[in-house]
DNA sequence: CGTGTAAGGAATTCTGACACG
DNA sequence: CGTGTAAGGAATTCTGACACG
């Protein structure tokens, strides 16, 4: 996935009515999940909410969990946890790469 | 670019006001280019136009050409020409692949 | 040809609030 | 807590048309 594509997923350009159609959620629900900090739409000049495709995916996850009876507070915790996991995974990858580079460098030195 | 990403670029979910902001074109211009068949937004149940990111890219190309004084008829021709080129390119790729497969097959036969 | 604009109507979106369970 | 709903106002979008160069 290149930069260009990423920008599409992230770009907040979809209005709430369309999001409602795409997710099957009511306007009320979508706005409420925002109130509970589960999503953060962009607001244009005159306050209209704009969502990205990522927001839509998040909303669909939320919908599934709500159907299973999970409360918004719990969903928020889960989302934050996953965020932390992604961060630490990225950290691990960075360290592994550094380790490999060091190994390479040492092999190079041994040969001289 | 996987299927998932493609669907984002192609999905017609952006309303004309947002497209106007993103492209710098007026509503009038955007609707006119549709009249001239340069773009084909989706229409939802009650007739509201919905555009994709691809449509937006196309509109930006159109804007550039219009600035250079190219008429919409010419732009339409250019777009159709490019479409044909893409088709024939795909055709060539398919033939090349077929050729390679045949070659492979023949080599296999020679060995037996 | 390409674009602006005023016109009238219909649908969208927003907020704050009351309701219910 | 999560969601529905009615309320009032502001902005959006649509179409068909006249205007201009």
UniProtKB/TrEMBL annotation, chains A, B:
Coiled coil start-end: none
The keyword Nucleotidyltransferase appears for this protein: no
Domain HTH merR-type: 13-81
Keyword Transcription: yes
Record-level Gene Ontology MF annotations: DNA binding; DNA-binding transcription factor activity
Pfam families, sorted: MerR_1
Protein keywords: DNA-binding, Repressor, Transcription, Transcription regulation
PANTHER family: HTH-TYPE TRANSCRIPTIONAL REGULATOR TNRA, REDOX-CYCLING DRUG-SENSING TRANSCRIPTIONAL ACTIVATOR SOXR
Protein name: MerR family transcriptional regulator
Organism (species): Metabacillus litoralis
Taxonomic placement: Bacteria, Bacillati, Bacillota, Bacilli, Bacillales
């Amino acid at each position: 996935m290149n930069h260009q594509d990423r920008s599409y997923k992230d770009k907040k350009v979809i209005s709430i009515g369309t999001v409602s159609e795409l997710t099957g959620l009511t306007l009320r629900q979508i706005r409420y999940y925002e109130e509970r900090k589960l999503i953060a739409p962009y607001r244009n000049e005159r306050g209209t909410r704009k969502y990205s495709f990522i927001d839509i995916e998040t909303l669909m996850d939320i919908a599934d969990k709500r159907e299973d009876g999970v409360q918004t507070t719990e969903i928020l915790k889960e989302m934050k946890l996953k965020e932390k996991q992604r961060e630490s995974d990225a950290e691990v990858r960075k360290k592994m790469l550094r380790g490999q580079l060091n190994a390479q460098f040492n092999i190079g030195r041994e040969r001289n």
